[in-house]
Structures are given as C-alpha cells and as structure tokens.
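retry 2 of 3: previous attempt timed out while embedding 2-oxoglutaric acid. Reduced batch size to 1 and resubmitted. Inputs unchanged:
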Amino acid sequence: MIHEDEVQFYRENGYLLVRNVFTPSEVQAMRDAVDAILQRAASAQKDKSHTWQGSYLPPEVLKKLVVKGFHDVHYHDAVFTRALTHENMVAVLTRLIGPNVQLHHSKMLVKPPEKGAAFPLHQDYPYFPHTLGTMLAASVHLDDADEENGCLGVVPASHRNGPLEHVGTYYLDPEKYPLSLAVSCPASAGDVLFFTALTVHGSGINRSQRIRRNVLFQYRDPEDKPLKDVHVNWGQGLMVAGENPTFREYHPDYSLKAD
Ligand SMILES: O=C(O)CCC(=O)C(=O)O
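retry 2 succeeded.
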C-alpha cells in the first residue's frame, strides 16, 4: 500500500496522507453508520456538542460552533471494526508502527456545515502519554475535506521537538502556535491521514455548506506502555496486526458505565 519513500516521509515529517484506502462503498457504509449514531444519540438525548472550550477563539464565535464527537465508534457499529482492521490499513500501520499493532481508541468527529468547530493546534501526546513514541492517529475521511470545510492541518517535522507545553484543555498557546502555522492537508473521501502523537495538528472552522465527517483510530505498538492510566476505554487493546508479547503485563483499568 505504501512505498519506502513514504515511510521515510512519515519518519521525517511526522505525517503521511495515504489516498484511496477505502472504496466509495466502504466510505458510504461508514457515513451511514455515523449518521445512524447521531440519530440514535438524538433520540436518547445524548446529542451534545463536544466543541473544545477555551480562549483560542472569541467567546461569541465559540458559542456558535458545533462538533459531534463520540468515542468507541466500533462499539456502536461493526462497520468500524472492519475499517480499523481493514487490510489496507494494516498494510500501512505495519510499516509505520511495526509488525505488532494494537488499537488504543476510536472516535468520530463530525463538523456540520457553516458552524463546524475548529481544533486549535495541539499534540495528542498530553492526552495519553506513552513511553516509546509509536502512537499514531489515522484520520479516515468520509467526505472530501479542504480549508473551507475545516480539513486537518499539520506542522511538518514538529514531532521532532518532543512533548510541548500545552495550556487549557491541552492545546498549544494560540499566540505562539496559530492555526496558520499548519500546512493544510486537503483530502478526498476514502483517504487517511496518519500522524504521530507528537505531531502538532489542528483544523479550522467548517464555514462551507458541506458536512465534514471523519473517524479517527489511534494505534500503538502493544509494547509502548502508557505513562499514565488515562484515556482508557472499552475497546482498548484490540490486536490489529501481529501479536501482543506483553499481554500479561498490562491491562487498562477501565470500568463500564452508560454514557
Ligand atoms: O478532526 C479534526 O479536525 C481534528 C481532530 C483532532 O485534532 C483530535 O481529535 O485530536
């Protein structure tokens, strides 16, 4: 699925956009599942916005913005279990992480038209710090995304600076790290953007008339242990490729709760 020069690009720049990982019909099945999750959430009155709060935008702008985010999407619909273990995904993941690949968590991020929330620049590392640096995000595009509808952007090679100090709910000081520092990563439905947990990334407001739906899977080498037992969730630990040599050494401390 990817060539050695793409692996090198990922190592040097901390991100890689891989085209056509999913077919149009696979994308459509995921869109339908996302829409059904939102409908079920609405009927259960759990349909809240998960817009990041903070001072990165004026309050009058922030209060109008909406992002629909749900974790553990593979517990909502089996289409995501198939997606996160898809052979094209595994082909890329085993090149970027190694022969053993484990799921950390899954989520969906839906930016509705005209008011889809922004994500200030941040690293994922402070949310779930790990020891070996294998953790990566795979953001699966279910719609064509560009700057108008709030596509992701990354700061190339920023992963080489290690963990950075974050403010507020774990984003970088917007004075020092404005969104304009990022290189936009426009992508088509079916493309996947891979980036490390240390890669500075974010995305702008969806000001367009088009929805922007992404699902995001986080993966790691099973030997890459968490530094803190945080961001633990039901689906954590699923082996996606290879074996788990440390199965007996670490089990996340999770509890089941209905939310
Ligand atoms: O999907 C996006 O636009 C950004 C998501 C993101 O940065 C995150 O979940 O860490």
